[in-house]
Give the backbone structure.
Amino acid sequence: MTARTSGSNAPLRVVVVDDDPMARRALRDALTAGAMMTVAGEASSGAAAEAAVRDARPDVVVIDADIPDVDGLTATRRLSVSHPGLPVLVLAARDDDQLALNALRAGASGFLSKAVAPEAIARATRGVAEGEAAISRRLTFRVVAELRALSRLRARPGVSEPGLTPRETEVLDLLAENASTTEMAQRLGLSTATVRTHVKHVLRKLGVHTRADAVAAARQRRGNGGDVIAGPWK
């Protein structure tokens, strides 16, 4: 599935995922008010989202971040794998920049607080379906700032001392993003115990004792022209 072109006349087919029936009804009313969208399917949990998408074949998914069983971000990540190119708009009860960044990393095309007007959610849904990103101006600045920070840590090809494995490299990348153990486990598809083991190996190989020291050591070595690890920083 890919984003629709703005010239298409057919109503957008939307799947709504939220565990609150009243919230689903409010979303359905907001999305269908202009007769340009139709709710082709609904799900009340992240676990049921993929089946709803498979059955409804929507143009876009609108999903709550805090649904039960499988949370909205994990469901978004799974949909990005099983239905590449399917736009997903994540909604949340709170306006949380870190949650929004995690949603974008999971594959979402947009993130909005439920506090915005229903018309804004409808516009954002149309936008992501047509290939646009639906994020706040503040979050846009945050994304740009993070990309700039990570670009300064981008590895150059060369010496791979102290010899981190590709998986340990990924862990160090996520440490640089201030990801928690749980977030790293979700993004890497590992258990939290396995992530902790990888973190211990990274600390030992870098000769430091804390996660913050590991990131600082990597930055210092790169700043001095030495390559700490093999492979690019993401």
Strands lie at 12-17, 37-43, 60-64, 88-92, 110-113. The first strand starts at residue 12 and ends at 17.
